[in-house]
Amino acid sequence: MTVPTVTRPAPELSPEPAPRPPGRGRREPLPYVLLIPSLVALAALFVYPVFLLFRMSFQQLGFGELVRRATVYTGFDNYTSLLGDPEFWHVVVRTVAFTAVCVGLTMALGTGIGLLLVRLGRKMTIAVSISLVLAWAIPIVTATTLWQWMFDSTYGVVNFVLGTPGHDWFASGVSTFAVIVIIIVWQAVPFVAFTVQAGVLTIPEEYYEAARMDGASGFRAFRAVTVPILRPILTVLAFLSTIWDFKVFTQVFAVRQGGPDGSTVTLPVYLYNQGIASSQYGLAAAGAVLMVALLAIAMVLYLRHMLRTELDE
Amino acid sequence: MRLVRRAWPNALAVVVILFFAFPAYWMLRTAFLPTLDIQSDPPVVFPTHPTLDHFGTALSRPFFWTYVRNSLLVTLSAVALSTAVALLASVAVARFRFRGRKAYLVLILAVQLAPFEALFIPYFLVFRQFDLLNRLPALVMVYFVSILPFTIWTLRGFVAAVPVELEEAALVDGCTRWQAFRRVVLPLLGPGLVATSIFGFITAWNEYLYAFVFMRDPQHYTLPVWLATFRTAFGDDWGGAMAGSVLFTLPVLIFFLFVQRRMVGGLTAGAVKG
What we know:
The complex is a heterodimer of chains A (313) and B (274). Chain A has 313 residues and is mostly helical. In chain A, 70% of the residues lie in helices and 0% in strands. Chain A contains 13 helices and no strands. Chain B has helices at 2-32, 35-38, 53-59, 64-95, 101-113, 120-129, 136-161, 164-172, 177-188, 190-206, 209-214, 223-234, 238-272. In chain B, helix 4 runs parallel beside helix 7 (136-161), helix 4 (64-95) packs across helix 10 and helix 5 packs across helix 7. The radius of gyration of chain B is 24 Å and the shape is globular. The two termini of chain B are 39 Å apart. The interface between A and B is large, with 118 and 119 residues.
């Protein structure tokens, strides 16, 4: 979650030598015993809540029902009322657009900086790396507070630098979103940049020499060697960024709680408003299921990609 | 010639450094700047008379130490739990081939991608039912299960990297399997355990949504929730807010320096193979 929320949990995919079990071939109960604690935890704290979420999405469940412990099934009512609500569609479209902007900027800047890193001298590389690590390591809530301070209308340094004293960046939805996008991209770029850098560094120098012998110019060599090798890395990064940015809550909520006038409400904030703040748990559950369904596209693509590369043994 | 060729990349690099490092610098300078100077126009770029006043106000806020204690308690419990559970699971998937192994790994990967943000409604109701709202164990459970998949997935790589031959040699020398694991494998897993628990620590330490939704009484807040409400509590005390931010960032920054390399290396290793 956290991560994400949260720092972004990087799925760590280490190359894995094929396991060589001590008691090869024998049917052993031991591995199953070792898995029991994790399976129990996942069943109780993940599978069960997912099941509840799904079930709740078919119920009329508000504060009243909760207190009376009443279970009122209403079929697809929550779904139809959500899908028939133009406000919900606004939020969906806004969230998709917001995600696209964040991912696009993160990938473009991250890839660019990653490629820049391998071109710099040693000292410059270290300096850039340190500045990237700073942005990456600063906790999300801190980063949000920090950028709000820099965009403060009265004493903010941004207004001073731009020569726009007193400009209120949080007065309109578009510019509030701009600030939120900057916060997210600022924290997300380092991971992409470092990963691209690491990817380029794994390319053997001989490939470029061979390209040069064949008479390829610098740009041709880049297109023929660097791009194909980077493509799978970029694919993974784009999937992960999409998944992460689509469900961002902290930055959006902490900046202006979805304001001004609800113009920066994204799906997770919408779920919070419906579910916790207005106690319409059933409706919010349906919204959460729809959100997961939207995310599932990116998740399935990512899983397929990962399974092809990781688990083929 | 070389200098000319590097002019453009270097100029770009300076822009990159400014964009990424400047906010952190601005946080530091504001934290050390006397309140009067914070409101000066043009802004003071470097504090000539640095003060520790803001750190004093941050530390003397009611409940501050309670928040530190809450955050530490929740984070360390979640990390300890997930490390213990993940260690068992990672040994199983790294050392044995068994029916269902692949399905288990797919499950772990899928849970890792799952948006926990979408689950706060069922969690909220379950915790409400068991009277756990507003209590720290609720957070421990959520953080535990959200860092567990990552911990299993990462540890499995570390376990697999310990040569089986070492274990076999220990068995030949008369160790039981448990002894072989405890005396031979476990010590070699040290760095892996450190890396994964630091990562789990950072994730849980940072978490805001669940702490915000579940912890209603001010004395049960964790540091991120406190920090987010800090400014409202202070009016517009940016010096105090930035000092609080610095305090909250320090442990993360220190831990981060240890794991940063490992996180990147791991991800590309998986991607490049394709």
